[in-house]
Amino acid sequence: MTTRMFGEPIQRREDPRLVSGDGRYLDDLGQDALAAAFVRSPYAHARVTDVDVTDALDVDGLVAVYTYEDLDGRVAEPLPLLIPHPSLHAPRTGYPLANGIVRHVGEPVAMVVAVDRYVAEDVASLIRVTYEQLPVVVGIAAALRADAAVHEDVADNVAAHLVQEVGDARAAIDAAPHRLHLDLDIERSASTPLEGKGVYARWDPADRSLRVYSSTQTSTSVRFAVAAKLGIPVDRVEVVTPDVGGGFGVKIVHPWPEEVLVPWAAIRLGRPVKWTEDRREHFISSAHERAQTHAVDVGFDDDGRLHGLSVTFAHDNGAYTPYGIIAPIITSTQLLGPYKPGAYRVEFRSVYTNTVQVTPYRGAGRPQGVFVMERTMDAIARYLDLDRTVVRERNFIQPDEMPYDQGMIFQDGRPLIYDSGDYPAALDKLKKLIGWDDFAAYRDQARAEGRRVGIGIGCYVEGTGVGPYEGAHVRVETDGTVVVATGLTTQGQGHETVFAQVAAAVLGVPVEAVTVVTGDTRRFRYAVGTFASRAAVLSGNAVALAARKVRAKALRIAGEALEVDPRDLEVTDGVVHVRGTPQAQIALKTVAVLANPLRYAFDAEAARATQFAVGGSLDKPPVADDDEPGLEATDYYSPLRSTFADGMHAAIVETDPETAEITVLRYAVVHDCGRLINPRIVDGQIHGGVAQGVGGALYERLVYDDAGQLLNASFMDFLMPYASEVPVVEIDHLETPSPLNPLGVKGAGEAGVIPGAAVLASAIEDAEGIPITRMPISPSELWEARREGRR
Amino acid sequence: MKPPAFTYHRPASVADALAVLAETGPDGKVLAGGQSLVPVLNMRLAAPGHLVDINRLGELAHVTVDAGVVRVGALARHAAVERDAAAFAALPLLRQATGHVAHPAIRNRGTTVGSLVHADPAAELPAVLSLLSGSVTLASASGRRTVPAGEFFVGPLESALRPGELAVEALFPVPPKGSGTAWLEVSRRRGDFAVCGVGVLVTLSADRRVAAARAAYVSVGPTPLTVDLAEAVAGLPADTADWAAAGALAAARVRPEDDIHATAAYRRHLVAVLTARAGKAAVANA
């Protein structure tokens, strides 16, 4: 068989287009559209007392200015709370344009539409907004002190309070031979896709239909949200996602104010309108994540085995909670990693601050949870003077204990049950890959050279492939090509390649024959979106299921044509043939022709399906009662619950004894996401994830001052790592199939980023001999920590 | 992130450029490489009514070495200065420092003189000019003047350039025989503005004793700061001189501040460490 399919590291089929500049991103579209720009609040908390547009109205090229007072119908209502939760007792969402009060710098106050973006920004700069400043809440400590309130009617600033407990953790800790307490913090970062958000809308007044292009992670849900907000029948709305230059979580939130306002304005004006977010807008008005403070109490025995673990943490959710409390729920559950915690109690508060709202960013609460658990493991090892890997190994869930029920409720509302995994094998591979047991000798040698080095480790388990479902449509065309459509969107993951591999493998066609469409509601209407490492699990399996239906139909039709039992048929390179008798064959494209009985021929192939050409029984209709024309099928995959991938990272760092500069010398990853559809793409996902993990550990933080001004809202001061800061990533794979889905796959999208802060903190602590309890860490902070003996 | 409207001028000669600048006065701004100016315009931090694009003035693109001076014209890109063999032979510090200016794509477009005029205290070239006691030649419709580095850098992002003037050339004097230089910096990411940067120039006597030693610093004061290290190391055998003492001396002179990337104390510490390292490296290069 020459066809290269499932499991092969084939080249990404989308790359020639994307790397040669032929990608079509949001801002490449709508060159005839009017441009929108926004007046955004310069204050973190203020009452808007007046919006004066007098000076702006004279500008040539101005089309419209809108403020909250202009909004009508459901557009004037707060944006939706996307994921309600019983513990989210005080949810709040913003308005598309500020309704009287702004609660973070960057909140939209007025919308300008003009002939181009230059004029729109000129106009925006001439609109005079009068603000009456209100007390500002910045940081978790201030939020909990509650000297001031972000929302007048939420006096304690607490949006949500959730406790989950398995066993009596406090009693178990009290009764344990040893106890430790740790305070562990992670600071704010953000998804920071290189392409910001963007929306372009066209209204067809004759057809009364709306087409919206959005740089989103969920076109189907944007469609429903826009239709609902604008009061248009869903059937008259279509949403198309063009090429997307990165999402990393921020684009799963919807509808953004601009996703409502741009179509709304396009309808009002009867002209196409486009808005392309600029970098500063993205920093101050999209979404951030990560900021949490944690207090840990752990009880353990002489072997380092956990008896009880209690974690209380606070999550800074910024000014609003459109995405509910998904990120802290994930922290609270995924913190457990590959371990049996003994009794476990977790309690969190999600608090309001006058900063940009917080929604999931790749990893979504896991980097914090893993940091907490892995710092705790290291602390136990140090306390007992044990090797750090030994402590971990002793607490691992063993392969024969799978499936393992952690006894909690996960982010999808379903039980936290690990489906499969072999953690001892993964640790063994990692120790070999990084040379864990040889490190002491390397350290001695480095020390003799006056160099300071350290090694660190971090383990995680990641719930991937959350439901509720995805679907796929697979069709074999009469020219032999196969068209696959799935409703979730693509932001560079390589879906055009992997879904083609899945379909090709099932159908027995060359992967080159398959084209893949994603994120276009004209092509597939029911979908959820691309987030939570779910695309390969959900759409991958849906493609397989739909392709299996198509294959079964193809074999049935071919069996009739060849007058053989379909069970004796197989498909190779697009040809159906009798097993063992290759000369008895029919091309799949011919089967596609025969699958659609025709009255009219449009070419020679089609003529074979016309009424005087086909044979068959005259006692049956051309299309049987239980059949449909065409060689195509739709199917859906809906998982029982999440499937749990896992991985372990190790790093060797060098810290400069004088300048405190931190260099990652080696970075090793052992990764298990079940069966690999395309190892090259999984490696790429890991590379990118590690880059973001290194960023989150050593470079990236969003810094607000006490007035709620974001001090580094640019790529000059928000330090996303360059290629020069990202280490070479050494990767080894384990393939423990998931028993939950037909392909046996688990998600791989977020894996690389998750343990970054934990691993590098572990390595830096090892090099320095001082506790590292707060990440990210800069050379300046490491140097200050040396002076204090602690960070 | 779109600039407000401006009038665009693209003069064909230096004389034409000076005429436009004379006419537009404080409302005119020179566009060379645009690596600092264009972001400033896009973020609407400045809104000059007139941009005077000098990119067609090829006569200002020179990098020449003569009479003990490296002359760099207003249109010479960082990359041209960095790669110029004669300039490197005469004055290795230019390449040593320019290699730390941002990234290759920026060095391909940005100009050395533009960096001087921008007068960012975190930039390398102003410190290099200060360390070498160089100067900048400014032309206007009414004549030319040459301003020494010590007077050229007035404050953060503020140079002695007056409205109507075009900085046509920078002059980097070649130090005496027996000199060595080194440039070291600590930056958060490769190519970022330095958290602290130092250039050291040492001149050795025939018996390899330190005859003169000076250092210049970036990101530890409002303008490029120079410190005479002679007090700590002059007269000592170069290879065993106490460069740590020179570092301590410099650390006491600088005026660093806290920002989101580093504390003032850390920057001061880096001044000491990097001065000691750069001093030794400069001796090795002498």
Sum up the structure in keywords:
heterodimer, A: 791 residues, alpha+beta, Aldehyde Oxidoreductase, domain 3, Aldehyde Oxidoreductase, domain 4, 3 domains, seven-stranded mixed sheet, six-stranded mixed sheet, 19 helices, 29 strands, 27% helix, globular, B: 286 residues, Uridine Diphospho-n-acetylenolpyruvylglucosamine Reductase, domain 2, Uridine Diphospho-n-acetylenolpyruvylglucosamine Reductase, domain 3, Enolase-like, domain 1, four-stranded antiparallel sheet, 12 helices, 34% helix, 27% strand
Output mean pLDDT of chain B.
97
Low-confidence stretches of chain B: none
Measured distance between first and last alpha carbons of chain A: 58 Å
Counting structural domains of chain B, the number is 3
Order of helices and strands of chain B: EHEHEEEHHHHHHEEHEEEEEEEHHH
Question: CATH first level of the largest domain in chain A: which class?
Answer: Alpha Beta
Q: What percentage of residues of chain B falls in helices of 4 or more residues?
A: 25-40%
Question: Could you walk me through the main structural features you see in this protein, from its secondary elements to its overall organization?
Answer:
The complex is a heterodimer of chains A (791) and B (286). Chain A is α+β, with helices and mostly antiparallel strands and 791 residues long. Chain A has three domains: 32-134 and 191-285, Aldehyde Oxidoreductase, domain 3, CATH 3.90.1170; 374-464 and 642-788, Aldehyde Oxidoreductase, domain 4 (2-Layer Sandwich), CATH 3.30.365; 467-637, Aldehyde oxidase/xanthine dehydrogenase, molybdopterin binding domain (Aldehyde Oxidoreductase, domain 4, 2-Layer Sandwich). Chain A has a seven-stranded mixed beta sheet with strand order 3-5-1-12-9-10-11, sandwiched between helices. A six-stranded mixed beta sheet of chain A has the order 7-15-14-13-8-29, sandwiched between helices. Chain A is globular. The model of chain A has no long low-confidence stretch (mean pLDDT 96). Chain B folds into three domains: 7-53, Uridine Diphospho-n-acetylenolpyruvylglucosamine Reductase, domain 2, CATH 3.30.43.10; 58-173, Uridine Diphospho-n-acetylenolpyruvylglucosamine Reductase, domain 3; 179-285, Enolase-like, domain 1 (2-Layer Sandwich), CATH 3.30.390. In chain B, 34% of the residues lie in helices and 27% in strands. Chain B contains twelve helices and 14 strands. In chain B, the strands form four sheets. Chain B has a five-stranded antiparallel beta sheet. A four-stranded antiparallel beta sheet of chain B has the order 11-12-13-14, sandwiched between helices. In chain B, strand 11 and strand 12 form a beta hairpin. Chain B is globular and about 60 Å long. The mean pLDDT of chain B is 97. Chain A binds chain B through residues 117-118, 121-122, 125, 278-280, 658-661, 699, 703, 711-712, 716-717, 719, 721-722, 724-725, 778-780, 783-784, and chain B through 1-5, 43-44, 103, 186, 188-193, 195, 260-263, 265-266, 269-270, 273-274.
